[in-house]
Design brief:
The radius of gyration is 20 Å and the shape is globular. With 344 residues, it is of the alpha/beta class. Helix content is 33%, strand content 25%.
């Protein structure tokens, strides 16, 4: 699956916006509350709607968790806005078959009863494709009975957390790892000093180092995040045709590892994985630009408010440094000016 574009009308912080994507790495930046995570969750919900048992509108609700699970609460609340619409276009990477999926609802739509169109062709075209969303907060150390507790509303986590736990538990591979996967696993293991194992009887994850294993809740946050990436690569989730969404990869990560993370992401897209990132980190965004090769497909997107009367706008460039609305670069330049005592 390759997501090609999205059009959003009157949804959360968005008035009307259309964004086209590349088949490689799509990097989203922007100040807080400009809708980066919302955008990733919409796209993820569309990808997961390739399953016959998953409705696009309902999946949006389960990833966004509006009050009372009412999708109507996701309508943009600017005066005069009453109807919301989202349309996503994608192609099948194998035969380039195209499909589109859309959902419409308004302020009076009850619960999650939105109108979804295009689902039959969407499911047929992309039924073999997988997708995964890595949230900013680590979750595997809290895996014990989490899905069961969430299902009876004892705790409340959105579906990105439940899905990532379920995906990490399942191994869909058979036999020896291919060379590309084996190399990626070795590179991650240099950071984590081990691999991840799942104990089904205890419903717990562990970091395995040699013949010993350590409870995941005792592992450093950054190592947990890289361990999760190792597990997803190991169990076959991140294969050609899959889509990876990663919200703030840099969170709790040793800055020394950001260069390696950029290299791993570039390698994944070379192996046919489409990637969507939301980041606030200058070094991660810049390393991706520095380390990309001629054949790599990278696009940068800056989400920003043009003024107080309009919703979020989007600026696009294939180079991070060419974005005019770039709060990350602006902040780092200000740090440099403060350090040398230059005032503008």
């Amino acid at each position: 699956m390759n997501l090609k574009s999205i059009r959003i009308e009157n949804f959360t912080v968005f008035d009307t916006i259309t964004i086209n994507f590349c088949d490689g790495i799509n990097v989203f930046i922007g100040e807080n509350a400009t809708g980066k995570t919302h955008l990733l969750k919409i796209l993820y919900s569309a990808c997961r709607s390739n399953r016959a048992d998953t409705d696009f509108g309902q999946k949006i609700v389960r990833t966004m968790l509006p009050d009372d699970f009412r999708i109507a609460r996701l309508v943009n609340r600017r005066k005069g806005n009453h109807n919301a619409k989202i349309k996503v276009w994608a192609t099948n990477g194998n035969d380039k078959a195209e499909a589109q999926l859309s959902v419409t609802f308004d302020k009076k739509t009850k619960k999650n009863l939105a109108n979804v169109t295009g689902e039959e062709k969407w499911e047929k075209t992309f039924k073999e494709n997988s997708s995964i969303f890595i949230p900013a907060k680590e979750i595997l150390s809290h895996s014990y009975k989490l899905a069961a507790a969430t299902s009876v509303d004892n705790v409340r986590f959105d579906d990105t957390y439940i899905d990532i736990i379920n995906s990490a538990k399942i191994d869909i591979t058979m036999g020896k790892n291919p060379d590309s996967r084996a190399d990626m696993l070795r590179r991650i293991e240099k950071m984590t000093k081990g691999g991840i194992v799942y104990d089904a009887a205890k419903d717990e994850f562990y970091l395995k180092k040699g013949n010993s294993k350590q409870e995941f809740n005792l592992v450093a946050e950054g190592i947990k995040k890289m361990g999760l990436l190792w597990q997803l690569a190991k169990n076959g989730t991140l294969e050609k045709g899959s889509v990876l969404f990663w919200d703030e990869p840099e969170a709790n990560i040793n800055p020394a590892y950001l260069s390696t993370i950029a290299e791993l992401l570039l390698e994944l897209q070379r192996n046919g994985v489409q990637i969507f990132l939301a980041t606030h980190n200058y070094f991660l965004a810049k390393y991706i630009e520095i380390k990309k090769e001629k054949q790599d497909q990278i696009s940068y997107y800056s989400l920003f408010f043009k003024n107080d009367k309009e919703g979020v706008w989007c600026e696009t460039s294939d180079q991070f440094t060419l974005l005019k609305n770039n709060p990350i670069t602006r902040t780092y330049l200000q740090i440099y000016r403060d350090e040398i005592g230059v005032k503008l």
